[in-house]
Every structure is written in C-alpha cells, then in structure tokens.
Amino acid sequence: MPRVYLEQICRRFNPTTAIEAITFEVPDGQFWVLVGPSGCGKSTILRLIAGLDTASSGDIYIGDRLVNQVPARQRDVAMVFQNYALYPHMSVAENLAFGLRLRGTDRRLVQQRIETTAKSLNIAHLLDRKPGQLSGGQQQRVALGRAIVRQPQVFLLDEPLSNLDAQLRDETRAELKQLHQTLGITTIYVTHDQVEAMTLADQIVVLNQGKIQQINDPQTLYAQPVNQMVATFFGSPPMNILPARYDGTAFLVGSNHLPCPTALQKQLQFKLDSATEPELPSGDWTINLGIRPEHIHLTDPASADLIVTATLIEPLGREKLVRASLLTDASTTLQFWAAADQTVRVGDQLPLRLEFNQLFVFHSQTGKNFLI
C-alpha cells in the first residue's frame, strides 16, 4: 500500500482560509486520524485527498504520484461517508458490487470479493436485503464493505461512526481496528471524538482553525501536549485549567499559595527567563496551570493544597465525578474523581491534594506548554 503525502496544502474560500500550510506524510499501511473541533478543516483535507475538492496551493501525493490534477475516479482511493451513501433501491450485494461493475471487473471475481468481504464484516446473511431493512450498524458495515471490496490503495473515512449509538460505536470501532490489522491498507480517518482518535490511531494529527497543532502517537499527545488546546482536547473529562500567577517559588491560585517543587522551579525559570512575550513581566508571570482529574485527590484538611465547594456530583458506577469551585474564588472550577463509596454531597467543602509532578504550565495568552 502507498504512502499519502501532503505538502504545504492550503484551501481558501474567499475571504476564509479553511486550511493553511498543511504538511504531513502517512506512511505505507498506517492508520492515521485527523481530529479537532468542528470547522477545523479535517473533512476538507479528506476531500482534497479524495479528489472531491481542489487545493488552492500545495501538492498531494499518493505513493510517488502527484495527484493534484488526477480525477477522483483515477486516484484509487475509497471513501466512507458519515451518511453511508448507500443506494436504497439496491440490495446489499448490489451495493457492494456497484463500484466493481463500473470498472468492468470480471463477474466471478466480483462475486468472490463480495462473499469474502461480507463474511469478514458479518453481513453475509444480509446480502439480499435493501438498506432500508437494515439497522444503522448494519448499514455502516455495508458502507465499509463497499469500500473494502474495491481493494483500494487508500481508505478515507469521514466520521463513519457518528450516527451509531454508544454501544454499537464501541463495537464497530473495535471491528475497524481489527480490519485494518488484517488488510493493512493506508487509512486516514476523520473524527471529532477524542476516544475514537486515541483508540484507533497509529498517529494523530490535531487540527485547530485550519492549522496543525501537533502530530504524535496517542500516548505522547496525552502526556506531552504542545499547547493548552491539545491538552484540553484529549482526556475525558478534560484537563482542569486553573488561572494562576507564578512568583518564582510558588503558584498563586486565587488566594491559595501552592509551593512549586524545586525541580519544576528550575525548569520553569529557564523557560520563563528566555520568553520574550511582553505579557510576561520579569519576576511575576501570569500562567495557566493544567492538571487532569485523575491527579487530584480528596485528602485530610491538614495536608490540603486547595479547599473547594462541591457543586455537582455525577455517579458513574465504580466512581463518581465531582465538579467543584474554589472556596476563595467561585469562578475557578475543576473536576476530579471520588470513589463510589466516598460520601460527597453538593455544598460540601472538600480538601484536595494535587500531584505536583503531574502539573502542566501553559502561557496564558498563546497556550504554549512551558514544560516541553
């Protein structure tokens, strides 16, 4: 299977720039995910690769072939859309066969591929049915099958699971991963769901406002985000962001004084001393502290770093999610986990301990992560 390479791709819809200077390479046989908030440009990139839209500038390669001027039908890619795009008057078998028959594929080979693909997707018993007789999950499998049966060089999937219910989405996501491991076809998958991105991808391209924020494997994105946007996008519930000031030895969160560990002081001092941004006056820096909910713990009052007031409790079976606000600053909120058997009520004042070795420090204006 070939690589897919985008070099300095831009797409403008005057006066709006949808994507700007996008460059990345998906190696042969890998599964990459484009992820980001709505309107970030991820579906636009997929359409450009498929040939359904034309870049304003830049080059797109599939393998070693420049495909800027190559029509969609000659790019040998298969795209699965969010709305499935099945032909309602055709049976499942006819939907699967349609693309092959357009290409004049031998009838016996068509039948063979249909049978093999239907078996792999567990839809062999549905071949005589029409799309209107299928559930959403079954329709999704047929849409995937129509792409697989062509044996394309590249798969492009545009939020293919968004119309499924939660349980079916989990099941289909696992099937997709297994299919890729079996077929080994270069795959680019678009989603706004960070769980899908984390569980499926070899590498994730994080987009925001038409620009790449970071490209890394899922674990690196979670542990070493380059900026606050990436940090808060990954993780459920998202990372807590606490506006703070840093005076060189401690973090001031509201009226709370949080001593900064010595190792972190040295790392921060080097970064902040070299910063040139005018909004960072020497010796007193406005920053945002980030900490994930799993790194905040209920503790005894004597060892508390923060005191908060519980504002909402969400029981989730084996644990509960607590939403709270700082006792001294109700506008600053955070979330953390509590054990299912811990008694926590709305209005309770709760002492919290923070894992300081798990803190993130972001520039308050640019969002840059100071610790990488």
TrEMBL record:
CDD domains: ABC_MalK_N
One of the GO biological process terms: carbohydrate transport
Residues in ABC transporter domain copies: 4-234
Alphabetized InterPro entries for the sequence: AAA+_ATPase, ABC_transporter-like_ATP-bd, ABC_transporter-like_CS, ABC_transpr_MalK-like, ABC_transpr_MalK/UgpC-like, Mo/tungstate-bd_C_term_dom, NA-bd_OB-fold, OB_MalK-like
Domain of life: Bacteria
Entry GO MF terms: ABC-type transporter activity; ATP binding; ATP hydrolysis activity
Annotated Pfam families: ABC_tran, OB_MalK
Keywords: ATP-binding, Nucleotide-binding, Transport
PROSITE patterns per the UniProt record, alphabetical: ABC_TRANSPORTER_1, ABC_TRANSPORTER_2
The keyword ATP-binding is assigned to this record: yes
Cellular component terms per the entry's GO annotation: ATP-binding cassette (ABC) transporter complex, substrate-binding subunit-containing
PANTHER family in the record: MALTODEXTRIN IMPORT ATP-BINDING PROTEIN MSMX, OSMOPROTECTIVE COMPOUNDS UPTAKE ATP-BINDING PROTEIN GGTA
Protein's name according to its UniProt entry: ABC transporter ATP-binding protein
